[in-house]
């Protein structure tokens, strides 16, 4: 309840000279159309003892209370905002994961213990001789498989690595090649050993070894009896290496979000 006297226009003009906090309000009160001020004045007379006191109160006519519907809509908007924010964070984490995975392809990680990097892959060279089946089992136990040369570049990388290491040079090695009867295939991937199926592999055996020719000082394929004992080359399974990389990156992202 406010007790006051309504100022005249002259008084309002005088008040506007003092640029206090109410200046803008008073300017609007004078310059804006009257229909924008819909406040109604309620005047009541109160009798106290032998005196009559006039009380006036400004009652806003268009003021509306916040309803339950308004509160419900606000809560729904807030929930939608939180969901969008959560999805955005998940998307950013996914982008970080993809970025880390791609970058790790350019900056190769060190090979596991007992493996040596040659080119893009990791390989293990045995010191002892085993038959073809036992060699494959030993490779799987180390998270790999008998080497498979899927590209000419991979073949060249491994042979160059062997030739540059006096410990490996001159030895014969089992590979993952196998001849079930029709053609030579890689046992792990079932891909043909040679893209040109007309090319032949010398030797009568059904298991493929990488053999060193002392005369030409070159390595080539040769079919060997699977029960004969040779050293072997393991190739780290790419799927295992990629899965481990993704798992490590995902674990880092989870730790950061926590």
TrEMBL record:
It comes from Atta colombica. The keyword Lipoprotein applies. This is Oxidized low-density lipoprotein receptor 1. PANTHER family: MANNOSE, PHOSPHOLIPASE, LECTIN RECEPTOR RELATED. It holds the Pfam family Lectin_C. PROSITE patterns: C_TYPE_LECTIN_2. The lineage of its organism: Eukaryota, Metazoa, Ecdysozoa, Arthropoda, Hexapoda. Residues 118-235 form the C-type lectin domain. Keywords: Lipoprotein, Receptor. The keyword Lipoprotein applies.
């Amino acid at each position: 309840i406010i007790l006051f006297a309504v100022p005249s226009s002259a008084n309002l003009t005088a008040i506007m000279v003092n640029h206090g906090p109410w200046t803008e309000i008073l300017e609007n009160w004078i310059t804006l159309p009257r229909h924008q001020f819909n406040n109604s004045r309620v005047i009541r007379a109160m009798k106290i003892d032998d005196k009559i006191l006039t009380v006036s109160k400004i009652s806003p006519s268009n003021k509306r209370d916040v309803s339950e519907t308004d509160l419900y809509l606000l809560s729904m908007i807030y929930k939608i905002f939180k969901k969008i924010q959560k999805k955005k964070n998940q998307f950013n984490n996914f982008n970080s994961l993809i970025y880390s995975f791609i970058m790790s392809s350019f900056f190769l990680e060190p090979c596991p213990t007992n493996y040596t990097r040659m080119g893009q892959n990791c390989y293990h060279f045995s010191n002892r001789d085993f038959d073809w089946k036992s060699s494959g089992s030993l490779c799987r136990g180390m998270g790999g498989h008998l080497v498979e040369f899927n590209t000419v570049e991979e073949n060249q990388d491994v042979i160059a690595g062997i030739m540059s290491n006096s410990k490996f040079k001159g030895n014969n090695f089992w590979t993952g090649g196998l001849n079930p009867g029709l053609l030579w295939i890689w046992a792990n991937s079932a891909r043909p050993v040679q893209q040109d199926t007309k090319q032949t592999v010398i030797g009568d055996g059904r298991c493929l070894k990488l053999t060193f020719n002392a005369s030409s000082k070159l390595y080539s394929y040769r079919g060997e009896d699977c029960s004969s004992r040779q050293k072997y080359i393991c190739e780290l399974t790419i799927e295992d290496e990629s899965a481990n990389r993704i798992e490590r990156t995902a674990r880092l992202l989870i730790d950061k979000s926590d």
